[in-house]
Write a structure and sequence with these properties.
about 120 residues; mainly alpha; about 0% strand
Length: about 120
């Protein structure tokens, strides 16, 4: 892999980590009830889920050997969630979003941080 490709791969991974960190910051000290009643907070979280999904898609598309070598990361599921949110924006299940960001994102963050490029 060229240095430029390695840098680009690392950039997409960083985009994912930054999106996770932002979501964590946004929901910190908030309850699910507050999240469900606060469209501005929902929008901030959804935007970063979109970033996560798009970065995951770019990694799968541009670096398939890399994503294949890390099957522990649910690359496709991340991208599918992004698609569901973008294309189904009128019917987002924010209870499910809350569950995903609290249950799955901390584990994903650990997985991504453990990857060495």
């Amino acid at each position: 892999m060229s240095a430029l490709n390695g840098a680009r791969l690392n950039e997409f991974l960083q985009h994912m980590l930054i999106a996770i960190e932002r979501i964590g910051t946004y929901i910190e000290n908030h309850t699910v009830d507050h999240f469900l009643k606060t469209p501005l907070l929902q929008d901030a979280v959804v935007r970063n889920i979109e970033v996560l999904g798009e970065a995951s898609h770019q990694l799968m598309k541009r670096f398939p050997e890399f994503t294949s070598s890390h099957p522990e990361v649910p690359w496709e599921a991340i991208y599918y969630m992004r698609n569901r949110i973008i294309h189904g924006y009128v019917s987002i299940d924010f209870d499910l979003v809350w569950t995903v960001i609290n249950k799955d994102l901390p584990h994903l963050q650990i997985q991504l941080k453990s990857i060495k490029v």
